[in-house]
Amino acid sequence: FGTTRQMKRDMATEIAATLAFSAIQNNDKIGVIFFSDQIEKYIPPKKGRKHILYIIREMLDFTPKSKKTDITMAVEYLTRVMKRRCTAFVLSDFYQRVGDDFEHALTICNRKHELVAIQVYDPRAKMLPDVGLMKVRDAETGHEMFIDTSSKKLRLAHTRYWMEREGQLRQTFAKSNVDW
Length: 180
Known about the structure:
By secondary structure, the protein is of the alpha+beta class. The chain is about 45% helix and about 20% strand. The protein has helices at about 10-25, 50-60, 70-80, 105-110, 125, 150-175; strands at about 30-35, 40-45, 85-90, 115-120, 135, 145-150. It has a two-stranded antiparallel sheet with strand order 1-2. It has a two-stranded parallel ribbon with strand order 3-4. A hairpin with a 3-residue loop joins strand 1 (about 30-35) and strand 2 (about 40-45). Helix 1 runs antiparallel to helix 2 and helix 3 packs parallel to helix 4 (about 105-110). It is globular, with a radius of gyration of 18 Å.
């Protein structure tokens, strides 16, 4: 998804690169877990500029096997695989199936590590533009449909949904004590 300046994927890569280059200034190790509804790839933490460039290259070239999302599984994997305390950033749009709650996994992981959640989203996810008929596709299921964005009622419903979802995320992160 990307409508204004860049795709969410590119934005996440840019954020990760900034964090990684900041970490290298502190002589910290950097690793990455690529996930969907499964662990797609794990690159263990190491130090060095060469390692960071490898991670960035992998982020740019990576294509997941699955289009679904399971944040709980990814956070539980992080909790298991990282034996020593670390600071971990979860970069995601935090969209996943309705009813999937990752609060418990975040709480457990945040007791062992310092977890920071960074939500990556496109401004159009907040507010639909008034452009008439628009074909939309669910990234996880592939379901496609046309929506009429000239309908003020539809645009308001979309914005209301976004606000409710943001409120739920805010509540989840607050309850699990995760910085967001």
